[in-house]
Design brief:
Length: 496
Amino acid sequence: MSPLDVFTDLWGFPEDGKHLAALPLLRSSRIPLLLRGHRYPRDALPSEIRLSAGDGQNLVTEDVTVVEGDVATISCRVKNSDDSVIQLLNPNRQTIYFRDFRPLKDSRFQLVNFSNSELRVSLTNVSISDEGRYFCQLYTDPPQEIYTTITVLVPPRNLVIDIQKEIAVEGEEIELNCTAMASRPATTIRWFKGNKELTGKSEVEQWSDMYTVTSQLVLKVGREDDGVPVICLVDHPAVKDLQTQRYLEVMYKPQVRVSQNYPAQGLTREGEPLELTCAAFGKPQPTDMRWLRVDDEMPQHVVVSGSNLLISNLNKTDNGTYRCEASNAVGKSHADYMLFVYDPPTTIPPPTTTTTTTTTIPTTITDTTATTEPAVHGFTQLPNSAEELDYGDLTGTPALLNASTEALPTMQLNSRAGEEGAIRSVDHAVVGGVVAVVVFAMLCLLIILGRYFARHKGTYFTHEAKGADDAADADTAIINAEGGQNNSEEKKEYFI
């Protein structure tokens, strides 16, 4: 068989002589020395297909990494090209492209670019079977050959989280497994609980060219983990943000809280009502809730209605610790409220100006020209409590203040130190206010009396007969009066 026959047989030209139509191509090209893997001497080839040496030419290419199902592009480039023939072969040494001609019957290979310096071919729908070395050949003398490697990445086909127990109880340890199947290369699995990354233990199994990775996570759960997602995330060059998650379901015993509805300000005083509310939260929701008094019996006058406890009239015997208990299928919990009943508040009633009061304020004015303030006497001593204060005579502002402060009984309040100081400050302020009101009222009364006397004060003059004292009878007195006596004294008469 001649070299030409070998060539026509290789490229599939018919044997009826029509292969002569390819001679222009053969004359304008350099035909490969390797035909079906056999090397033929230069002298055995016709002059039309002999290879010439390429001085200074350099063949280059790059490795290709592609995800399964995507497109891979193979590029054979020549630096300092002298129009030598470029050829691309597959890992089985079958020619894919010879210049811009594709002898291989695989339509997935398509010519992207052809020139004297480059042959670029694309391979669509890449699979694992396409992985391997692809050869770029430059037919110079001697010929050049380099290879490019196609690496096919296979993302995990399935990502699944298996949990040991669908519903866990607070304080238990549960096991979770995440499996990434049939990937290439082997994947890396990471664990997250919410935003916190956790550490698992991974195992890798290889099946043919594929890898299956399983990661195990052991987690101790609490009530705060209920409803929190556990995330299995994959690190793999073929995929980004591939993850799956499971939400934890944790059962826990009730969490109990007691709140005081009334009095809202916090102080519980004798004679006032008290209302408490018990709130319980758990999973499952608590169904049994009850009130009790620690270390003592519940008072007879205490009213319990569901989650509420009411004492309408507090007294000292109610002091103690009241407990609210709640339970569910997981367990029982409670919350305590310590009750301490304080003395009732001590207040001083405001002064009255009505005429029905039994307190009198006598005033005595001995001289109309006097400006002295009327005396005030008699602030009554407190007999039993601050509510029984009576107002008597007041001897003056300082005396009133001293009397009022001495009259106040020492208050024995069984309260906290800060609350006792606040109550005493309030009582002193009330006493001071009462004193100020009384003094102001006395000053107003003094002003009114002064204006009254000023309006009713007058001087009256009489012109009696002068010299009447020396007359022997009335007629003589009249006669003497007509003459007038310049030295007689003027008399004044005052009417009050």
